[in-house]
Amino acid sequence: MKDKMKKFFTRLPREVLLFFGVVMIVFTTVACINGFEAVSVCRIFQLLGIAVIAGALMLIAFSDIFIKKMNQILRAVIFIIPLMLTTLIAALTFSWFPAGSLKAWAIFFTICLGCFTGCFVIFLIIHFIESMVRGKKYTEKLKEYQSKNNKEI
Q1: How does pLDDT run across 15-26, given as a tens digit for each residue?
Q2: Residues 6+ positions from 99 with CB-CB distance below 8 Å
Q3: Which residues make Cβ contacts (< 8 Å) with residue 107, sequence separation at least 6?
Q4: How confident is the model at residue 55 (pLDDT cuts 50, 70, 90)?
Q5: 35 exposed, middle or buried (CB, 10 Å; 0-12, 13-18, 19+)?
Q6: pLDDT tens for each residue of 82-126
């Protein structure tokens, strides 16, 4: 368990930074569309809090630290539902948008879903490419090992 926690906290800053960038882009886009010209420092820290939660959820759902084998769709559900609920609670608690403005909320959730979907697709493409490269590398090493052993026999 100690090794798992060490891995978790070693990888967490990277995930937090990735999500903080995405969250800032989403929030400032929605704010600009709705006519806001500035984002307060308090709001930036609120968004950082969301990024920390998102980074932790990302590691829990998509890494092998806690969940060894699970379908990618179930992993996505483990990630999406808590993150969306957390974001909704934060948006309501911190009054990110006027509660009665359906336009602001619709834009916010449309951009959130769009960014999440885009990032998820990019994540899957990178994961696929990384797996292919790793597979080729292992295949080459296996062939090296096999040829080396065939020569010794």
Answers
A1: 999 889 888 887
A2: 92
A3: 30, 33, 34
A4: very high
A5: exposed
A6: 988 898 898 889 987 777 888 877 877 787 777 777 777 777 787
- Round to whole Å and give the CA distance between 103 and 123: 30
What residue type is assigned to position 12 of the chain? L
Say if residue 7 is exposed, middle or buried (CB neighbours under 10 Å; 0-12, 13-18, 19+). middle
Provide φ and ψ at 123, rounded to 5°: -60, -45
Mean pLDDT of the chain: 84
Region 24-29 average pLDDT: 80
The position carrying tokens 């906290």 is 9
Q: What is the 3-state secondary structure (H, E, C) of 19-57?
A: HHHHHHHHHHHHHHHCCCCCCCHHHHHHHHHHHHHHHHH
Q: What span, in angstroms and rounded, lies between the C-alpha atoms of 67 and 76?
A: 12
Q: How many CB atoms lie within 10 A of CB 88?
A: 14
Q: CA of 5: how far to CAs of 11, 37, 63, 76, in Å?
A: 10, 41, 12, 22
- Residue spans per domain, the chain: 2-120
Q: Residue 77: what are its φ and ψ, rounded to 5°? A: -65, -40
Would you state the pLDDT for residue 16? 94
